[in-house]
Design goal:
This protein is of the alpha/beta class and about 625 residues long. Strands 3-2-4-1-10-9-11-14 form an 8-stranded antiparallel beta sheet. A 6-stranded antiparallel beta sheet has the order 5-6-7-8-12-13, with helices on one face. The longest helix has 22 residues. The protein is globular and about 80 Å long. The protein starts with a strand and ends in an 18-residue tail after the last helix. The structure holds fructose -6-phosphate (F6R). The site of fructose -6-phosphate (F6R) has 14 residues, from helix 10 and helix 17. It is an enzyme of class 2 (transferase). It is found in: Cytoplasm. InterPro entries: GATase_2_dom, GFAT, GFAT_N, GlmS/AgaS_SIS, GlmS/FrlB_SIS, Ntn_hydrolases_N, SIS_dom, SIS_dom_sf. It comes from Candidatus Pullibacteroides excrementavium.
C-alpha cells in the first residue's frame, strides 16, 4: 500500500528511484512521483497519474540530474488518484518535500489548525498536512529539519513511513516509521531507503530494518544515525545482509510475474520444506515449534488470524492442526478479530499468517493477542517484515518475493508450513503416529514433482479458459479440506478477471446458491477421491440436472466423473490434507488465462495492492 524510496550517493538518483519504484509498484500503482534535490533554488518535483511508466513519459525532456531524491508509488486512501494528490508533497514555501506510506488519522484537525495559521492546501491528502506541519514547526521553533520532523510526528496519530528532504540541504534525508515498514540500504558512500528491500537488491547488500517509533538521519558521506522518536537517544541497529537476488525480482522470461510465480511453485515448495523434514519423512522439525515445546504441549486452543488468501490457508490449517494435534482451532479474519470481543488467554496459541508480514489488520490482531498473554506464532514470507518482528516465534515460508498482486506460491507455501507445523506439534504432543507423519512428510518431499505434473495441465486449461471467458458468474464448490480451496479459486478469478465468483461448501449449495445455476453459470468442483468424494458426486449431479456446466478437478483415472462433468482436470493423488496444494494450482491457471483473455492487467489488477498496510 504505497511504496516509498529514496537515494543519496554518487549515482544518478532519478535512475535509482525509477528502478526502485518499478520494484515497489506492486504496492500501489495509481500514481507516482519523484522529488530531486534543489536546483536553481527549487526542489524538482515530477508526478503523473497512472503507472511508473506514465511518470517516465511525463518526465521526458525534463532535468533529472542530481544525486539525492525521494519517490513514491501510490495506492489512494485520501483523495482520488490524480497529479495533485500524487506524492511527493511540498510544503507551502516549496522548501520541504515528503513521501509517505500510511494514514494520518487526525489530519482533519491539524489541517484546520494550519489553515487558521494561513496555510493553504492543494491536495486532498493527509500527507500534505504533515509536510505543512513540519514547515510550520520548523519556522516557529527556528529549528533544523530533523527536529521539525520529530516534533511534527509527536502531533500525528496514525501510521507512517516517511522520507523528507529540504531544498536548502542537498545532503540529508530524514526518515521515520510507525506501523509502516521502512528499510535502509547501506552502501559504500551511498544510502537508500525503501518500503521493502526489493529496490535495494543489486545495488547494496547491507540493510537496516528500521523499528517502529524510530527515525534516521541519512547524510551524504556520513554514518547512518538511528534515533528513538520518543527519547531522541541513539538506537542500536543491526546491519543485516540481504539474501535476495535480482533474478528473483524479474519475470525470468514469463509474460507476467503471476505466471512465473505459478510455474516456480515446484522449486519454491522445495525451498519451503528444505531441512525441515528428516529421517525419510518420519521427523518434522520446525525450530519455532520445537523451541517452544512447552507452549505447544500445554496449549488449550489455537486461534488463527489472517486476511484474504492467507485466511483461506488458515481454514485449511484448522483441519490439519485439529487432525494432527487434537487441539480445537478457530479461524478469524484479522480485520474482525479485535472487534468481536475475543476471549484469549495465556493458554492460547495465536497463529498469524501473512505473505507480506505488513498487513495492518493482522498486526493489530497480533498486538491484541499479545496483550492478552497468548503465545503468538507468525507464518510469513517477507524476511524482516513487521509480523515476524512482532511475534513470539514463527516460521518463514521461504517462497521468494511474490510480486504479482494475486497470491499463488505464497498460498501453497502457507499450506505447506501449516502442515509442517501440525506434524511437528503433533509429534511433540504425541497425537500423531509415526506412520502418518512419514506418509505426509514423504508426500511433501515429493510435492515439487507432483506440482510439476499438475503444471502440465497448462495447455488444457488455456483451452478451457477460452471456452469460459464469456461467463459473468462462476461458482466454486469443495468440501472438507477443499472448501477453502474453492474459496481461494473464486478469489483468484474475481480479483484478476473481475468476474463475479463465489466459493461455497458444496453441500451448502442446496441452501440457496443452487437458485443461480443455469446454462450461463459454470461451476468448478474440487472433487479428489477423498473421504467426501461420494457426497460431492451428488452435488455435481444437482448442478448438471439444472443445466449448469461443470468443470471438475479430479484424481487421475477417475472415469465416473468423466461421464458426469463437462470438463475434467486430472491431478495426482496425494494424502487428503495435501489436496488443497495440488488442486489450487489448476485454479490459479484457470483464473490466470481467463483474465489474460479478457485483456486484464494480471499483475496489477484494478483497485488492489499487494501489501495492505491500512485498516
Ligand atoms: C489475494 C491476496 C490477498 C492477501 C491479503 C493478505 O490474492 O493476495 O487477499 O492474501 O491481502 O495479505 P498478507 O498475506 O500479506 O497478509
Amino acid at each position: 500500500m504505497c511504496g516509498i524510496v529514496g537515494y543519496i550517493g554518487n549515482r544518478n538518483a532519478y535512475d535509482v528511484l525509477i528502478q526502485g519504484l518499478k520494484r515497489l509498484e506492486y504496492r500501489g500503482y495509481d500514481s507516482a512521483g519523484i522529488a530531486l534535490e534543489g536546483f536553481d533554488g527549487q526542489l524538482r518535483v515530477y508526478k503523473a497519474k497512472g503507472k511508473v511508466s506514465d511518470l517516465e513519459k511525463a518526465v521526458e525532456g525534463k532535468d533529472v540530474t542530481g544525486t539525492l531524491g525521494i519517490a513514491h508509488t501510490r495506492w489512494a486512501t485520501h483523495g482520488v488518484p490524480n497529479n495533485v494528490n500524487a506524492h511527493p508533497h511540498l510544503s507551502q514555501s516549496g522548501s520541504i518535500a515528503i513521501v509517505h506510506n500510511g494514514t494520518i488519522e487526525n489530519y482533519g484537525v491539524l489541517k484546520e489548525a494550519l489553515i487558521r495559521e494561513g496555510y493553504t492546501f492543494k491536495s486532498e491528502t493527509d500527507t500534505e498536512v504533515l509536510v505543512q506541519l513540519i514547515e510550520y514547526v520548523k519556522v516557529k521553533n527556528k529549528c533544523g529539519l530533523f527536529d521539525a520532523v520529530r516534533e511534527a510526528l509527536h502531533q500525528i496519530e496514525g501510521a507512517y513511513a516517511i522520507a523528507v528532504i529540504e531544498r536548502d540541504d542537498p545532503d540529508t534525508i530524514v526518515v521515520a516509521r510507525k506501523s509502516s515498514p521502512l528499510v535502509i540500504g547501506v552502501g559504500e558512500n551511498e544510502t537508500m531507503l525503501a518500503s521493502d528491500a526489493t529496490p535495494i537488491v543489486g545495488l547494496m547488500d547491507k540493510v537496516v530494518y528500521l523499528k517502529d517509533d524510530e527515525m534516521a538521519v541519512i547524510r551524504r558521506d556520513k554514518p547512518l544515525q538511528v534515533l528513538s522518536l520518543e527519547t531522541n537517544h541513539p538506537s542500536d541497529f543491526d546491519i543485516q545482509t540481504l539474501k535476495m537476488s535480482v533474478a528473483e525480482l524479474e519475470k525470468g522470461g514469463y509474460e507476467t510475474f503471476m505466471l512465473k510465480e505459478i510455474f516456480e511453485q515446484p522449486d519454491r515448495l522445495r525451498d519451503c520444506v528444505r531441512g525441515r523434514i528428516l529421517d525419510d519423512g518420519a521427523q518434522v522439525v520446525l525450530s519455532g515449534v520445537r523451541d517452544n515445546r512447552k507452549r505447544f504441549l500445554e496449549a488449550n486452543r489455537v486461534v488463527i488470524v489472517a486476511c484474504g488468501t492467507s485466511w483461506h490457508a488458515a481454514l485449511i490449517g484448522k483441519h490439519i492442526i485439529q487432525d494432527m494435534c487434537k487441539l480445537p482451532v478457530e479461524v478469524e479474519y484479522a480485520s474482525e478479530f479485535r472487534y468481536s470481543g475475543p476471549i484469549i488467554t495465556d493458554k492460547d496459541i495465536v497463529i498469524a499468517i501473512s505473505q507480506s508480514g505488513e498487513t495492518a489488520d493482522t498486526l493489530a490482531a497480533i498486538q491484541l493477542a499479545k496483550n492478552k498473554g497468548a503465545f503468538v506464532y507468525g507464518i510469513c514470507n517477507v524476511v524482516g517484515a513487521s509480523i515476524p518482528r512482532n511475534t513470539d516465534s514463527g516460521t518463514y515460508i521461504h517462497v521468494g518475493p511474490e510480486i504479482g498482486v494475486a497470491s499463488t506460491k505464497a498460498f501453497t507455501g502457507q499450506v505447506t508450513v501449516l502442515t509442517l507445523l501440525a506434524l511437528c506439534a503433533g509429534q511433540i504432543r504425541g497425537t500423531v503416529d509415526e506412520e502418518k507423519v512419514r506418509m505426509v512428510g514423504q508426500a511433501l518431499m515429493q510435492m515439487p514433482e507432483t506440482v510439476k505434473e499438475v503444471l502440465k495441465l497448462d495447455g488444457q486449461i488455456q483451452q478451457l479458459a477460452r471456452t469460459f471467458t464469456y461467463a459473468h458468474n462462476f461458482l466454486y464448490l469443495g468440501r472438507g479440506y477443499n472448501y477453502p480451496t474453492a474459496l481461494e479459486g473464486a478469489l483468484k478469478l474475481k480479483e484478476i478477471s473481475y468476474i463475479h465468483a463465489e466459493g461455497y461448501p458444496a453441500a451448502e449449495m442446496k441452501h440457496g446458491p443452487i437458485a443461480l445455476i443455469d446454462s450461463e453459470m459454470p461451476t468448478v468442483v474440487i472433487a479428489p477421491t477423498d473421504s467426501l468424494y461420494d457426497k460431492i458426486v451428488n452435488n455435481v449431479q444437482q448442478v448438471k440436472s439444472r443445466g449448469g456446466a461443470v468443470i471438475a478437478i479430479v484424481n487421475k483415472g477417475n472415469a465416473s466423473m468423466q461421464d458426469m462433468a463437462d470438463y475434467c482436470l486430472e491431478i495426482p493423488e496425494v494424502p487428503e490434507c495435501l489436496t488443497p496444494i495440488v488442486a489450487s494450482v489448476p485454479l490459479q491457471l484457470l483464473a490466470y488465462y481467463i483474465a489474460k483473455y479478457k485483456g486484464r492487467n494480471v499483475d496489477q489488477p484494478r483497485n488492489l495492492a499487494k501489501s495492505v498496510t491500512v485498516e
